[in-house]
Amino acid sequence: MIVGSGIEGIVFVVDRLLFDSERIVQRSWEDAGNELGIRHMGSHIYHTLGMNVVGRNEYFLRVFGPDFPAEEFAGRTRVRFREIVEEEGLPIKPGVLELLEYGKSRGYKMSVATSSRSGYAIHNLEEAGIYRYFDGAIFGDMVHLAKPDPEIYLKACEAIKTRPECSIALEDAPAGIRSAYAAGMIPVMIPDLVEPDEEIKDMLYACVPTLTDLKQFILVGEDISGEQQICLSGSAISD
Fold it and tell me: What's the predicted TM-score (pTM) here?
């Protein structure tokens, strides 16, 4: 992949990247599933990463059939998620504040592109005190097509008036990487629940273990032009 010189913007996914939230979501799915007599619901999260509510419901209907109680399940998971967060908090990932401060200090435009609904995402971002860092935001209920379609990332770049080829997309999920790649952006993966396979590695500009590593090894360079690919997780992305 040839990366355009000069970075104009950074687009962040929210869950699993800014917040250590997906494990709480997984617990809420497991608990809600048990209440409904459906065992091992938490394991299905690995198949739905990056999907919006429409995509998840379509997945559930394919797996469980037309009788799956999608609305009741969603309602129970929201209640359980909030109970866990109220008891334990919603932790911010290490390096988030430092990276946001760095982005602002360098004049990068920053946006979020999340499959989550606006009310849920804005509440979490405001509660954490980090919503103010972003110049734009696109949520799952603002797009027609779910990831891996590029719509959400194209709109996120449009919202902050940056060119996709000069904008970094920070993602943790394969569907999100496919979306950013299709949008012509600079895909960077920070894996959480899922490691990239060979197909995803071929789409990546970089794969780094943490946001702290991303700041140190990529953004500080100010110019990541060229055909190189970077991997800081122990092995090369591609030959």
Answer: 0.78
